[in-house]
Amino acid sequence: MKKNKVIIFEGKKIKIPFDIYVDPAKAFELETVSNPFSGMKAIIPAFAVAVLDVIKGSEMLYNAGDLTAARTMNKGREFFQKYFTNEYYTLLD
């Protein structure tokens, strides 16, 4: 999916924060994702898992010294705060 694409999920308009790679046929399938630190789990659609993957990858780049990755990481965090608030606190807080 391309950046700024607006999709409808559970009756809500959701704007994708950056380019993500997800199979369009499976983008709305629900997946269970775990927080590696707390072990807590959340159920989110595949497109949100793709956003989460980009956030985690950006964190790794940032921790390795790529300070420009912070912008991508923050866009993804803001996406979760806006559209998946409870899951944000489970997976990213």
Overview of this protein structure:
- This protein is α+β, with helices and mostly antiparallel strands and 93 residues long.
- The chain has one domain (22-91).
- It has three helices and four strands.
- The strands form two sheets. A two-stranded antiparallel ribbon has the order 1-2. A two-stranded antiparallel ribbon has the order 3-4.
- Strand 1 and strand 2 (12-15) form a beta hairpin.
- Helix 2 crosses helix 3 (85-91).
- The longest helix is centred in the middle third of the chain and has 18 residues, at 46-63.
- The mean pLDDT is 96.
Give a nutshell description of this structure:
With 93 residues, the chain is of the alpha+beta class. The protein has helices at residues 46-63, 69-83, 85-91; strands at residues 6-9, 12-15, 30-34, 41-45. Strand 1 and strand 2 form a beta hairpin.
Labels describing this entry:
two-stranded antiparallel sheet; 93 residues
Tally of strands: 4
Give the CA-CA distance, first to last residue: 25 Å
**What share of the residues does DSSP label as strand, in percent?**
15-25%
Largest sheet: 2 strands, antiparallel
Backbone shape: globular
* Stretches with pLDDT under 50, minimum 5 residues: none
Main-sheet strand order equals 1-2
Q: Compute the gyration radius: what is it?
A: 13 Å
Number of domains: 1
Mean pLDDT across all residues, rounded? Answer: 96
Number of helices: 3
Helices and strands, in order, run as EEEEHHH
Structural class: alpha+beta
Helix fraction, binned, reads 40-55%
